[in-house]
Specification:
Blueprint lengths: L13 H13 L4 H13 L13 H12 L15 E5 L11 E5 H11 L10 E2 L2 E2 H8 L3 H11 L3 H11 L5
Antiparallel strand pairs: 1-2, 3-4
The chain binds zinc ion (ZN).
Length: about 170
């Protein structure tokens, strides 16, 4: 697999990742195909569709779970008794097992918030150079909607905004 891929061993820049991801998002799968993809994802088949950055974040997390089992310790606070989940180290979501470490729920949200550029309360969250409030105006939705969206889909705000920009036809 990927023998002649010029990207082998290299890292994509965030811009390239984003471009790749957006290109991928633009392709619509039929419901039937999506169903098949979900099923095959559940079985953990490592077919070519699973390569690199095309892997959905959620699928990637469950893949890590299957391969590494449940995390046993939170890397931040050291707890072994709280509910633990795999946390992506650099949020580039490569399909690499060592990109994931165990974190408890509270440390996980702190870590992800930090990654998302949380300004410490006063400035609020800055995503793609704009505050969430600005984004909600651009997208014509409420802040609460963005929060619920994040909670439901368990993805970062940047990804949510990209999705919504496409969904609302603001950005192709
Ligand atoms: Zn913790």
């Amino acid at each position: 697999m990927l023998k002649n891929n010029p990207f082998k061993g290299k890292h994509h820049s965030p811009e390239a990742l984003e471009k790749n991801r957006l290109a991928h998002l633009g392709k619509k799968h039929s419901e039937e195909t999506k169903k098949k993809m979900r099923l095959s994802a559940k079985r953990g088949k490592l077919n070519h569709k699973w390569e690199g950055d095309k892997v959905g974040v959620l699928a990637l997390h469950s893949w890590v779970q299957r391969c590494r089992g449940n995390p046993t310790i939170c890397v931040d606070c050291g707890t072994t008794t709280k509910k633990l989940a795999w946390s992506n180290v650099n949020h580039k979501y490569r399909r690499a097992l060592d990109d994931f470490v165990g974190r408890c729920h509270s440390c996980h949200s702190i870590y992800d918030r930090k990654y998302n550029g949380y300004g410490g309360g006063k400035k609020g969250l800055i995503v793609k150079g704009k505050s969430l409030k600005e984004w909600s105006k651009i997208l014509g939705c409420t802040l609460v909607y963005l929060r619920i969206y994040k909670h439901r889909h368990k993805i970062g705000y940047e990804e949510i905004i990209n999705k919504l920009l496409i969904k609302k036809g603001i950005q192709k």
